[in-house]
Amino acid sequence: MNDVVPSRLDLLRFLLRVQERDLARTRRWIADEERREAEHQRGVQARPPAPDWLLELGLNRHAPPVFVHSGDCWNAGKRSQPMTRDQARRALADGIKACPHCQPDTALGMLD
């Protein structure tokens, strides 16, 4: 049996070691978070600009396109591809419907 009672000084030194280890761990966490934030910022800066206009394609390659959208439309599906202003105007003129939410026909000046 160990009947030796540690001195107050021994206990304080033990506490110091524990706190130094905790501080080192916290510093690692901060460094990791700073690295993740820097990576995120690099990703945001490297992201290509959003297209001005989108063409939402049909469910398969034989289905006609569904809608023309503005580039920032919240309702543009995953099957959308970017297009130029002239292509968007041509698609609307060819009978592809304008998205009822973003109304690209209004932005393009093509109202009936």
UniProtKB/TrEMBL annotation:
It holds the Pfam family DUF6233. InterPro entries: DUF6233. It comes from the Bacteria. This is DUF6233 domain-containing protein. It comes from Streptomyces cylindrosporus.
